[in-house]
Write a structure and sequence with these properties.
Layout (H helix, E strand, L loop, with lengths): L38 H9 L31 H9 L21 H13 L15 H7 L3 E4 L10 E4 L2 E8 L5 E7 L12 E7 L9 H10 L3 H6 L7 H4 L9 E5 L13 H8 L2
Antiparallel strand pairs: 1-6, 2-3, 2-6, 3-4, 4-5
Length: 281
């Protein structure tokens, strides 16, 4: 099946592209502003492909596997991501779309974070992006001088990027019970168990893996239901905290904390419910 590549309608961005209300017209998301280097804008940018972008292995990477493709170096979400999502159904299985020609149809974990970072840090398309191996993304961002790599973090703040073995995720915020709301692109079983799709979504890390029910999971379920097509296919999930916070031996893994982003809205000192209310309408 060919990937859809629709052209962006001329009136899709009535402010000329200064902000991109990808789903704002449907009353879901608050707009992000490409190139606005704040923690709030990072999180708003991360929400733009949410619930409308499927997991594609290698999505966001170029076909040479050397870095970001054109879409992941752009300040706006690719219309092809949403079009491909709408062209599929609950039986979608990313394992049927491993051919590199499908990479422009969706995002994997490093493609998603790479695009989010590029669209936050830059207002124009870039020649070189931020897509790199997920396990090493935290260290590479620190090497770019954008912040600090913490190999043994004691806490998680909004906007932190965590590189674990084979995956990378963004901390949206912490809840009062100690659980975390995270944003990432990850394969997810559909509600019927017939496919393995998923993609850009909110998930929860519970404080205790023996009891996945937590405030973060309640929040993830609430906000992912704002995307009815997605929600009909996939349920919000709690991921195993022990697995998602373990450090591999790779010295570039761990937690990356921005110093290149200002925080005039004091987002780092707010809890997950308050932060999400600033991301969604």
């Amino acid at each position: 099946m060919a990937c859809y590549s629709p052209k962006t309608p001329r009136n899709a961005f009535p402010d000329g592209g200064a902000s991109f209300p990808y789903e704002t017209a449907k009353g879901v998301l608050r707009a992000a502003v490409p190139g606005r280097r704040t923690v709030l804008n990072l999180l708003r940018t991360a929400m733009q492909p949410m619930g409308t972008t499927l997991y594609i292995y290698g999505g966001g990477w170029n076909e040479q596997d050397t870095g970001a493709d054109v879409a992941a170096r752009a300040p706006l979400p690719s219309p092809a991501w949403r079009a491909f999502f709408l062209s599929q159904n609950a039986a979608y299985d990313y394992r049927r779309f491993l051919d590199p020609r499908f990479r422009r149809c969706g995002l994997d974990c490093s493609g998603y974070l790479g695009w989010t970072l590029c669209a936050t840090l830059h207002s124009k398309p870039q020649n070189v992006g931020y897509v790199c191996p997920s396990t090493e993304m935290a260290g590479r961002l620190a090497a770019h001088g954008l912040g600090t790599l913490l190999r043994f973090p004691t806490d998680f703040l909004p906007g932190d990027v965590f590189s674990m073995s084979g995956h990378v995720w963004l901390c949206v915020g912490a809840c009062r019970d100690g659980s975390l709301v995270i944003a990432h692109s990850s394969p997810t079983p559909d509600r019927t168990g017939t496919g393995r799709g998923g993609g850009v979504q909110l998930s929860a890390l519970p404080p205790d893996d023996s009891n996945p029910s937590c405030e973060a999971l309640t929040l993830a379920r609430h906000y992912m239901r704002r995307f009815p097509t997605w929600s009909a296919r996939y349920a919000a999930q709690a991921k195993p905290r022990a697995q998602y916070t373990v450090l591999p031996d790779n010295p570039n893994s761990g937690l990356f904390r921005f110093t290149a982003l200002s925080d005039p809205e004091n987002i780092k000192n707010q809890d997950a419910p308050t932060i999400l209310s600033a991301l969604f309408l």
